[in-house]
Structure formats: C-alpha cells, structure tokens
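Example 9 (inverse folding). The structure is encoded as follows.
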C-alpha cells in the first residue's frame, strides 16, 4: 500500500483550527515614534476554516498595549507620557495558504479589517476623545506550526498590522498553541 507524504505528515492541519498566541508587539511608524511608544505584549485568538487541504479562511481578534514615552514633544513642550498607554484591538479576516507535506507546516496569511485604537491614562482607563476609534487596517502573518498530536500544534509567527489612515503599525513576534476540531 502506497503512503503519500501529504497523508502521513501534519494530520492536525487537515481540520479547522483555533489558534491562541501571545508575543512581543513592536510599534512602528511616525506616530509610534512621536509618542515614544515602547514595545508591548499582545495576544490573538484566530479561527481557521480549512478549504481544499492547503487554503484557509481566517477570522482573528487580538489586543496589544504599548506604553508611551518619557520625553514626548507636545503642544505644551516636552512631556512625560509614561503614565499613558496605547491599545490596538484588531478584528481581521483573511485568506492564507498552508505549505503541507512536511513535518512542520509553514503558512502565510493576508488580512484586512478594523483596528480599534484607544489611549489610556494608566493601564486601562480610556481617555475621552480617543477611545475605541475604528480604523481600516491590513497586514499579514507568516509562521510555522509543529504538530505535537493529531489535534494540537505549537505555533510561531510574525504578524504585521498597518492602520491605513495613520502612521502607525505593529510588528508582533508570537508563539502559541492551536487545536483542530
């Protein structure tokens, strides 16, 4: 009986998946630089719908918080804004491709959707006038999954999200786990 490599490798990637990841989020762009944003921590929860063994449709929700800087130029001069943080909450949909047939499964995803931006006083008190403003966002991720069982895989990915009308984006380096169902 002939066994094909695709049938033998990565059985957990032959089903729909739920992925939870967490990682370091690096703020990018002129707005992030002007506000002295520091790297932060973020998470994402993604749902993958498998089509034809290699193509996926994806919905993703996440959140990342980044502290503002200590020497930020404002209309009132140089200010210490370290008591403030910026939060981005992306709600994205996308399409992707799985490179199956190997022991590890590389993947690439293109995404678009909405990103909600909030400026907080302290860790979680939204500031009036800049609270959950929605912006069009786009980006993508590249990653690799390593199946550890028929239903569980470890994931590592790099995700980029660009807020279209602002000079702000994030580059996340993430790790997590996914389950097939």
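The amino acid assigned to each position is listed next.
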């Amino acid at each position: 009986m002939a066994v094909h490599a695709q049938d033998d490798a990565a059985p957990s990637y032959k089903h729909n998946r739920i992925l939870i990841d967490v990682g370091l989020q690096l703020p990018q762009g002129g707005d992030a630089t002007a506000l002295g944003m520091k790297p932060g921590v973020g998470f994402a929860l993604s749902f993958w719908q498998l089509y034809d063994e290699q193509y996926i449709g994806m919905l993703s929700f996440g959140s990342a918080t980044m502290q503002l800087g200590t020497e930020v130029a404002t209309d009132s001069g140089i200010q210490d804004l370290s008591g403030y943080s910026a939060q981005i909450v992306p709600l994205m949909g996308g399409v992707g491709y799985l490179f199956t047939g190997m022991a590890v499964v590389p993947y690439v995803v293109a995404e678009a959707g909405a990103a909600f931006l909030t400026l907080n006083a302290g860790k979680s008190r939204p500031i009036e006038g800049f609270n959950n403003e929605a912006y069009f966002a786009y980006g993508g991720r590249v990653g690799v999954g390593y199946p550890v069982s028929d239903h569980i895989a470890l994931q590592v990915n790099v995700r980029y999200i660009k807020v279209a009308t602002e000079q702000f984006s994030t580059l996340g380096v993430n790790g997590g786990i996914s389950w097939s169902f």
